[in-house]
Each structure stands twice: as C-alpha cells, then as structure tokens.
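User: I'm putting together a small comparison set for a docking exercise, and I want a reference complex before I start. The sequence is below, and the ligand is adenosine-5'-triphosphate. Could you produce the 3D structure with the ligand included, as structure tokens?
Assistant: Of course. I'll restate your input first, then give the structure tokens for the complex.
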Amino acid sequence: MSKPESNQESLMETLIGLSKRRGFIFQGSEIYGGLAGTWDYGPLGVALKNNVKKIWWQRFVDGREDMYGVDAAILMNQRTWEASGHVAGFSDPLVECKKCHHRFRADQLDPELAAAKKCPDCGGALGDVKQFNMMFKTQIGAGEDSAAVSYLRPETAQGMFVNFKNILDSQHPKLPFGMAQIGKAFRNEIAPRDFIFRAREFEQMEIEYFVDPRDEKKVNETFDALFEEQQKFLTVLGLDPKKIHKIEVPASDRAHYSKRSVDTEYDFPFGQKELLGIAYRTDFDLKAHTTMSGVDLSYFDEETKTRFIPHCIEPTFGLDRLILAVLSNAYTEDDMGGEKRVFMKFAPAVAPVKIAVFPLLKNKPELIKKAREIYASLKKEFGAVEFDDNGNIGKRYRRQDEIGTPFCVTIDFDTIEKGEGVTIRHRDTGTQERVSEANLLDFLTKKMS
Ligand code: ATP
C-alpha cells in the first residue's frame, strides 16, 4: 500500500487552496466558521461534477439498452432502513476521550494508542468503545412520536430496491437489467476528513443490476463485465491507471450479504484509499423488502414459466471521491519560459471550461468585435467557453492553465486585417498554431474528443 509523502500532504493543502481561490470547492457554511464534513461546489466545481455525471449517465444509462434511470426521494419510510439493516447495524465504533471529549473512530486509531486506551490529541484516557449509528435521524411532519421518524438516506441503493416492482410494472424489462441513480447521501461520519474524501453529505452514482441466479457462470461474467466498465469509466475521466488498484475484499471484511466484493482504490495524496466498489448483494435486499413490506418483489420468467427473486450486483461510485481523484490527478507543475507554471491537466471531456477566447488587446474595438463573434459561435457549440480581455496574454494563459482550460483562442490583427485565422494555444505543451476561421470549429471538435 502506498504511503502519503510529505510533499503529497502539501499537495492536499495546495488543492484545497486552489479549489477555493478559483471557485471549485468551498468549505460549507464558511462565513459561520464552517460545518464539518460539508462542502459547497462553486461554478467550476459544479461544472466539473456535472461533466463527470454526464459521462457516467451516458455510459451506464443512455448508452445501454438494459438500464433504467430513477431519482428517488431522499426521505424514505423508516421501515426501509429497518429492512435494509441500517437501523440495527449501520454503525462505526466510537471512542471518546474522558479528558478533552474528542471523539475518534476506534478502528482508525493508532494500534499502540488504542491498546493503551490513550487519546491521540491530549494523551487522556479513552472510554469504552460504543457503536455509533451513522444515519441522520429526522422528524417528518408535526408529530413527535416514533412513527414520524425518518432518516436522511445513507446510500442511494435502497431508493432503487423499493422501486423494483414499479420498474417491472411500468417498463416490463427482461432479466438481466439494471436501475441507476445519481443522488445525495448522508452519513454522520465520526471523523470527516481529507477534504471531500470523507464528508457527511456527499453524492453517489449507483447501479443495482439484477440477474437470474440460476446461471452462476453468467452471474460471474456479469460481475466481471460491470467491473471492467467501472475501470473504463475511470480511464475516460483521464485517471492515471498506475494509481488505480483492484482489491478483492476478503470474506472477513465483506458486508454479511455480499458474496463477492471488489473495491477500486486510488492513490490519493494522503494514501491509497477506496474510490469505488462493486458487490454481489445476492437476493438480500429484495428478500428483506418483500418480508418487511409484504409486497412480492419476485420476477416471473416468461420463458421458463418460473417465479424467483433476482440476485443483484451493485457497482457503486462516490462522486466526490471521483472529483478529488480527478483534481489530484490533474494537478501539474512545470517550468515554462523560466517560470514555474501550475496547470490542471483535465481531459477535455471533464474540463469545466473547454475554450477561452482572447482579443489580443483590450482597447481595440475591431479586435473585441471579432473576438466576441468567435466567442459566440464557439459558445453555441461547446457551452463552457470563456471570454477574457483582462491583462496581458501571458497572464490570461496562466489563469486558464490553473483552471485546466485545454485550448485558448487568440484573435489578433492578422485575424482581422489579413484573414489569417486565429492562434490556438495548447494547455499541456504551451505550443501555439494558426488555424483558419473556417476550420476552427472542426479543429476544436476533433481535439475535444
Ligand atoms: P469507507 O470504508 O471509505 O467509509 P464505505 O465502504 O463505507 O467507504 P460504501 O458504503 O461502499 O463506502 O459507499 C459507496 C461509495 O460511496 C464509496 O466507494 C465512496 O466512494 C462513497 N462514500 C462513502 N462514504 C463517503 C463519505 N463519507 N464521503 C464521501 N464519499 C463517500
């Protein structure tokens, strides 16, 4: 397992600073001193996140014939969480220091300190380990009795299982098929940390893929194929394959309902940690909801005229962890023209701004007019295009480098006086080339893909 190095720790500080300065991600409720474990995405962060979601939805839902999208409510009947086992068992081991009252996850303490029951912060004595349920409890409506209790969902998965019959009845799918959802999840983490890696409010992209359990070979092949799809998706995001690790989770570490789990870990600046996972959840969820709700969640196979409860394979993706992986993977420093340069090497598909358009000079109306014209036509085509006439060209390039804009287009006097096209400057190499106005759209479209 790779260990974080101190320059990697400072990379986290740099990323957090850059995220705030350039409008990717801010501390939640910052003007009130913040709220631990919450983060607000700014204009560039939300654009980056939307691009990742769009690619995911295209690959896993729109691009396939066997996937059904849903957007279920965050608040669900409390019995959902009784059936799923979350009320009884969704907890982490908690210890509290008797002196400073700081709380820690017992399983994340330094083993020596844990054995000595010593607080890592003040050296005081630690109390006994208690199980702490991570679901946020809330009250529905005006009633204060226990029947009015609900929870902010700790995962999006259950919103799909409870809609399984609705999908059967409204879409009439044949096995195998999947349901997919992108949405917020909430966990009252004992120790939120590492920026957006471990938050109390975060976003997941999950798939529940249902299969016929009788053909075990096919089930295993489907598991492997979905795992491969997860890996391809990471490549499309531009993540370095050398930093991605496949971990077969041993039975002792798996959830009790899982027959097989494979985690994908990533070399974050603070070490190799879980990015996403896939689990073979068998018929655990559909069976549990059938028992709890009294509603039959079985499937009738027309071909064999048999009725059974399908098994489920669940590929799950943490969106915020993906964003952190994309940010840390993209951060690059080099030397350009004798000066240190910082640039975000985003794949064009995820870059929050695709193109920046510059008139060479600010005070020449004919240059501004032409640049505005080109900007408008590119914006119509690519959406995320910026216009910038502020400061010298070098400074403008650096600003775009820092937010990862792959291409800058400059309009100068040769563009308007000689019809000699525009200058395209490439982010990663800093090289420039001249492209005719007529070919500009085509040229950029090819480069984007
Ligand atoms: P961990 O062991 O790191 O707490 P987990 O195994 O509990 O994670 P899952 O329950 O499998 O996580 O959740 C699915 C995905 O949701 C994870 O792979 C991760 O990407 C994401 N995720 C889970 N907890 C958090 C969190 N607190 N903040 C951000 N993302 C999270």
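Residues 216-236 form the longest helix (21 residues). Residues 353-448 form a domain with the Rossmann fold fold (CATH 3.40.50.800).
User: Thanks, that's exactly what I needed.
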